[in-house]
Specification:
- The chain has a six-stranded antiparallel barrel with strand order 1-2-3-6-5-4. Strands 7-8-9-12-11-10 form a six-stranded antiparallel β-barrel.
- The N and C termini lie far apart (about 55 Å).
- The chain is about 15% helix and about 40% strand.
- Strand 2 and strand 3 form a beta hairpin.
- The radius of gyration is 22 Å and the shape is elongated.
- The protein folds into two domains: about 5-195, Thrombin, subunit H (Beta Barrel); about 205-295, Pdz3 Domain (Roll).
- By secondary structure, it is of the alpha+beta class.
Length: about 300
């Protein structure tokens, strides 16, 4: 059998094994894709949702209203409760580990007829880190080359047997695409969201600029360069506002540890202890001061 024949056979097997589990999220052309992972349960990307309800269209053409069961906006994952009818749940890959170079297929359900779209590619990289829709770092992503058309985020990336190996998220450019690996950790997150157990994370309530921007802005006004993240704005009624953080403050340390990146500050916020307090070392102009931020329980 030629390579082309093998690819044709694999494509047919993928569609037969996983095609019925692919859905479209949103009305008309849709916002994205989703995956039937159990009876009455669909998983998709959080950025596909607007509000507590959405329309889900199945591969057989049936459209129904789904309600949001749980959302992890920072991790770009959501679970919907919906009448899945006869749609078969997708099969998860056994180990959730897909090696670099492995052949993969991306599936989605575009509008306009023609059924499920399937494209072929390979895993180009593993362990990739990228930003979620709200700027938080997502780790251990899969990068692959199976083309994703408009409305494909939230859909499945499967192996040659049609088993779920990742959930597609977005396109970073250059013909490559990123996906959340279907690991045991992801299955646990999906199970928790299915129970309505959405993760909660503390929020400082500031808009930030990274160190290279902070250094450039300080130099522009004749201030000594310092490593840290710059506060560009402070949300009203936020922990940052209550603590007295101001626009233009440079956060150089958090909890006694240097802040060399936005991610370092977010990690310090996530690691706040039971007392809910975090001390920030701040440079305000030429003055250095400590600002204690108090958070509600996460």
């Amino acid at each position: 059998m030629s390579l082309l024949d093998e690819l044709t056979t694999a494509t047919s097997q993928v569609l037969e094994g996983a095609g019925g589990a692919v859905v479209r999220i949103g009305r008309a052309e849709g916002r994205g894709a989703g995956i039937v992972v159990g009876s009455g349960v669909v998983v998709t990307s959080a950025h596909n949702l607007r509000g507590e309800e959405t329309t889900v269209t199945f591969a057989d053409g049936r459209s129904v209203t789904a309600t949001v069961k749980g959302v992890d906006a920072d991790g770009d994952l959501a679970v919907l409760a919906v009448d899945t009818g006869d749609a078969p749940p997708i099969t998860w890959a056994d180990d959730g580990v897909t090696p670099q170079g492995a052949p993969v297929f991306a599936l989605a359900l575009p509008s306009g007829g023609g059924g499920v779209r399937v494209t072929f590619g390979t895993v180009s990289s593993v362990g990739r880190n990228f930003r979620g829709p709200r700027g938080r770092l997502i780790t251990d992503g899969i990068e692959h080359s199976a083309p994703l058309g408009r409305g494909s985020s939230g859909g499945p990336l499967v192996d040659t047997e049609g088993r779920l190996v990742a959930i597609n998220t977005h396109r970073p450019g250059d013909g490559l695409y990123l996906a959340l690996p279907a690991s045991a950790a992801l299955r646990s997150r999906v199970d928790a969201l299915s129970r309505g157990e959405a993760p909660t994370r503390r929020r400082l309530g500031v808009a930030l600029a990274p160190p290279h921007v902070a250094r450039r802005l300080r130099a522009a006004v004749g201030l000594e360069p310092r490593d840290g993240v710059l506060v560009r704005d402070v949300a009203d009624d936020s922990p940052a506002a209550s603590a007295g953080l101001q626009r233009g403050d440079l956060i150089v340390a958090a909890g006694g540890q240097p802040v060399g990146s936005i991610d370092a500050l977010l990690a310090a916020v996530d690691g706040v202890g039971p007392d809910g307090a975090l001390t920030l070392q701040v440079v305000r102009g030429v003055e250095e001061l400590d600002v204690v931020v108090h958070f509600e329980a996460a």
